[in-house]
Amino acid sequence: MAWTAATRRDYARLGGAYSSDMTDREWALIAPLLPAAKPGGRPRRTCLRRVVDAIFYLLQTGCQWRMLPRDFPPRSTVYGYFRAWRDDGTWARVHDMLYRRCRDLEDREESPSAAIIDSQSVKTGPDARDAVGFDAGKRVKGRKRHLLCDTLGLMMRIEVHSAGVQDRDGAAFVFDRIAARFPFVERFFADAGYQGTRVADAAPRPVEIIRRSDAGFVVQAKRWIVERTFAWITINRRLAKDFERFAATVQTMIQISMIKLMSRRIARYRTF
């Protein structure tokens, strides 16, 4: 992509107090997907746009909840919405809706025909309370992020578990019920860590192993796509390391990072 005056204008983050703030077009994509206020009781006074902006700010900067700037709603309010939308599946639904919109704008079918699986072991902070283990191969004590993406690099599923779980075993968590969600996937691509009968038995479709080249560093076909997706995720400082207490929170933060990416991508289209 050429870096022209037009692309500079499309990618500029102008008008907000922070570069993580949503534009009007991005908010127009997300707002209809958020739950309406419950009937009865006091009317909702919190601006949901500022709540989502605060969560995007925390995700992008990596700050603590208590360090949110004061021009956002109170941190207890922001965290309350974050947790409520995590527990009732709102974040997952928003992600899935934007995923379908992204594929539609790229003239792709809703269900991809190929997918790539890989994992990333990340060190945890001192407050981690669950799903912490040791990845002997990478010498990392923490959690493992198991991700399945399509050939556009868009996340199809994410599972966060102990780093002590081998890739062959962790793949079963990702493949569970994936055929019902994406029925037209014909083939999965993976590295040599996924070879063997355990992965083949868990996968609903054939798994093609892409091996490393003996000729030194070579960009691996298909595998580079999922590595780029991990880079998209970890460019958010909150996810560069795992500072969360619970694995479920990490999983939600990864979903939100993709929501942020996809909403920006869709909003750059002239029509959506």
Order of helices and strands: HHHHHEEEEHHEHEHHH
* Helix-strand makeup class: alpha/beta
Percent range for helical residues? 40-55%
- CATH fold assignment of the domain at 109-245: Nucleotidyltransferase, domain 5
| Radius of gyration of CA atoms, rounded to a whole number | 19 Å
CATH class of the domain at 109-245: Alpha Beta
* CATH architecture name of the domain at 109-245: 2-Layer Sandwich
What is the CA–CA distance across the termini?
A: 21 Å
Number of beta strands: 6
Q: Major sheet: size, sense and barrel closure?
A: 6 strands, mixed
Average residue-wise pLDDT? 90
Strand content: 5-15%
Question: What's the overall geometry?
Answer: globular
List the helices and strands and how they pair.
Elements: H1 5-11, H2 24-30, H3 48-61, H4 75-87, H5 90-105, E1 114-123, E2 133-135, E3 140-149, E4 155-162, H6 167-175, H7 178-181, E5 187-190, H8 197-202, E6 207-209, H9 223-234, H10 237-240, H11 247-267
Parallel strand pairs: 1-5, 5-6
Antiparallel strand pairs: 1-3, 2-3, 3-4
